[in-house]
What we know:
- By secondary structure, the protein is α+β, with helices and mostly antiparallel strands.
- It folds into two domains: 15-107, Phosphorylase Kinase, domain 1, CATH 3.30.200; 114-357, Aminoglycoside 3'-phosphotransferase, Chain: A, domain 2 (Alpha-Beta Complex).
- Helix content is 48%, strand content 11%.
- It has helices at 15-28, 75-86, 114-117, 123-139, 151-169, 176-195, 239-246, 255-271, 279-306, 317-327, 335-357; strands at residues 36-40, 46-51, 61-66, 94-98, 103-107, 198-201, 210-211, 226-227, 234-237.
- The strands form three sheets. Strands 1-2-3-5-4 form a five-stranded antiparallel β-sheet, covered by helices on one side.
- Strand 1 (36-40) and strand 2 form a beta hairpin.
- Helix 7 (239-246) crosses helix 9.
- The radius of gyration is 21 Å and the shape is globular.
- It starts with 14 loop residues before the first helix and ends with a helix.
- The relative contact order is 0.12.
Amino acid sequence: MSEPEAIQDANAPDPRADARTAWTRQVLGDPDASPARASMDAGFRSYWRVQAPGAADLLKSVIVMDSPPDKEDVRPWLRIRDLLESGGVRVPSVLAQDLEAGFLLLEDLGADTYLHVIDSGNADVLFDQAITQLLKLQAITPPDDLPAYDEAMLARELRLFDEWFCGHHLGMNLDRDDLQALDDAYRFLIDSALAQPQVLVHRDFMPRNLMPVQARNGDGGPDGPAVLDFQDAVRGPIAYDALSLFKDAFLSWPTSRVTIWLQHYHARATEAGLPVAALAQFMGDAELIGVQRHLKVIGIFARLQHRDGKPKYLADVPRFFGYLDEVLPHYPELQELQRFIAHKVKPAIEQLQAVAQA
């Protein structure tokens, strides 16, 4: 989830850029190396591509991860990277590091993610390869000190919806009935999540964080996709990452295909010995953890605009309300949430849009 930082004066001093360039030149042994923007996280990390033509022990092109230590410590990223690699998950190789400065030199996996290359024709193959990586990830025993997707975390994420989207973005004043409807729905969603089998959870296992790479040994066979943006991994519900893969933040698929893909994941997870529930239960678990995720992401996208000055994510919010519209009618426990969205939230969205167009 990337968005350029606020535009600064091009002539203003940028000590971080100077430090990044100096470090890159030092580790590459190339006084002319000049990192160019490759991509940026929704957080504070940024990625820079640099050519390294004179470095025989490195690839021709490499990536510098810039993670300002006062904003995003790079150690959690490295820790989860090592954990995933130990379980056979394809992750970026680390070529050099400076933990105190917050710089990493990584292999260049290319410019295109799954989001750039996936389409209706190749989706079955690409998703099957993604499931292969997901099953490896879920088979890894979460470390004892890894955070749990517990009640507090689930509730905190759900509250992003009413705090940042309903409150900050739409300017809604929620009355007692509104809050009760949300509380009841959140309680149901939290209980459902906690009842699922618990495994290692990436938390953003979606096409944007998967790279369609080939094997390192050069034999041309796929060992990807490579998995990115894994630093927030936790121990949590087994259906979370599979649902995130097929009900993406930036790409929608027909419900019939999503159902088939979830069933395919379930069959492969069962064969792999992962602790998935029976198919009918799993499909319900996936729907409900999806509702939790959709509400959370709507709130995060509003927070990215109103707190972080990154407005473009809100354009994808209608996708999540579409996901919610598909699922909420199936659950009596979520009828009041459905009513709240239909009769309070959507009219507020329409009013905000009318004001913006006036």
